[in-house]
């Protein structure tokens, strides 16, 4: 890999598979000096104080310290998840990775692909919910869409079904 630091996006909806994806990335992908951007996509109909400001562009990049604060979760409608915070703390402490978060509003498929461009990601990690075939046809799998359309390498981490 050489000494170049990478920017790795991790799609986070706080489901068990997205936490698995985060843990996998922390263990296998992140090296010292890398930047982790936790990407959360909220539904368009959600109503948070910050949404009107950032609906088009997504939120500013939020540092880990702020992400921890309860105020942040209220403004962005994100659950303050101790497990996620713990994984991020550990990877920033043990590997010296810089961690920030960004919130988008809208269709996760489109917004994750847009995040790749916006944030100039070197790679993106997504969890696969392991939907059954019929649901996948109806909902269109986010991971399939992103793998097909994103302009950077995408790793899909599968949950244990």
Automatic annotation (TrEMBL):
InterPro entries: Rossmann-like_a/b/a_fold, Universal_stress_UspA, UspA. Residues 6-158 form the UspA domain. Gene3D superfamilies: HUPs. Coiled coil: none annotated. It comes from the Eukaryota. Transmembrane segments: none annotated. CDD domains: USP_At3g01520-like. Pfam families: Usp. This is Universal stress protein A-like protein. It comes from Quillaja saponaria.
